[in-house]
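Retro notes, structure queue

What went well: the backlog is down to a handful. What didn't: a couple of records were mislabeled last round, so from now on we paste the full input next to the output in the thread. Example, using Cytochrome P450 2G1-like from Culter alburnus:
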Amino acid sequence: MELSSSLVLVLVFVVLMLVRWKRNASGLSLPPGPLALPLVGNLPIMDKSAPFKSFMKWSKTYGPVMTVYIGPQRTVVLVGYDTVKEALVDQADDFKGRAPVPFLYRVLRGYGLVISNGDRWQQLRRFTLTTLRDFGMGRKRMEQWIQEESRHLLNSFEETKSTPVDPTFFMSRAVSNVICSLVFGQRFDYEDKNFLHLLQILSRLVRFVSSPWGQMYNIFPKLMEFLPGRHHVMFREVEDIKAFIMTKIKEHEQNLDFNEPKDFIDCFLIRLKEEKHNPDTEFHKDNMLGTVLNLFIAGTETTSTTIRYALMLLIKHPHIQEQMQREIDRVIGQNRIPTMDDRKSLPFTDGVIHEVQRYLDIVPLNFPHYATHDISFRGYVIPKDTVILPMLHSVLRDEGQWETPWTFNPEHFLDANGNFKKNPAFFPFSAGKRSCVGESLARMELFLFIVSLLQKFSFSSPKGPDGIDPTPELSSFGNMPRFYDLIASPR
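Corresponding output:
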């Protein structure tokens, strides 16, 4: 018995030494990190429900640049504002690579804007930014679209007659219609069954990728393909969204006017036809489908989730809601439609909206970056094919940048005179060359939708402020707020 126990100890010791040797192989000076086991890496000691909590804890031992193994995948985690900024902004070219996230790769096969790299990514990002700006993203034309959609959103809350409702699809219908106007050239009726079906799929999809099962697929994709489970259902449901998009693309092809493109798809089709004889073009149907899918998902879920969370926090903190309404009443009144020009006159309201984004911390790990070549960083070498996580959670909770990082506190964005103040560590949209292409649109939506809602309604919970739990239900890829009911009472 003693002999067998000794053999086990020796084998464990040998395995650990092999792992350590592998980490230091080829003379590369990898960042330090907790010792990992073969195949499973650091998973046995990782908080599965909230991995970023483990990374924050480990960084106190190993520093702000550390190596962890998420299953067999070598991953370098960057912690803190200074570290993340140095990587994403100061060394932007080195850290602009995007990791081939297995779940998304399975859906998109590497096409589209979000998970592409190199020339494909550069061409698609440049085209997407230019086209969205041409159609008014961040400008007066887009402001008018959001104002019009706000009217529909307000009417839908009026129809509830102050009865408790789950606000999830109230928000997603309104926000999604804005991106649909940009991409598809149309908005959808709130009662459109196909539209609601797609929004339900999007909601389930985002929650799935933030669940432990969804993360297991990203860690062990080959194994998970052979196992039954929710991932197979999600792949089938995503096909419904892809089929919807392809139908819209075919409709656009039949009605395309080269001289007067009306939306993103028209512009992509024109570019596709212009480059049809270029064998190296990135403007083809696969990239069009992938990019439209990227815009539809990101343009719907992140902003609508943020607004839903904003109302949750305002119900939890009614005095903040009341102070925002007093400011809105003083500056705009209860009849005039809010405009973006009002933002500079609503410093408290603007500060609260920024603080909602900081406190929600919607993508705590950031979207995974990737070393497309060996990277020298802070005296270490990050080898090619390493996943890189510049943790936004560690920036939005950096104790050196925020006075009370773990508390919902709008004063983070206000000076001593009550004027709005910026904070350089405000990174909810990430930073650098991979920052969110829809940032200006999201900022405009958050301001106009939230101000319009508070102008017309007061929000409460059937269970009172104490019945609201602002802690996330899921905290993996994304921080997913809990579902809740609210009461919208006309003012």
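Agreed that this is the format going forward. Reviewer comment attached to the example: The radius of gyration is 24 Å.
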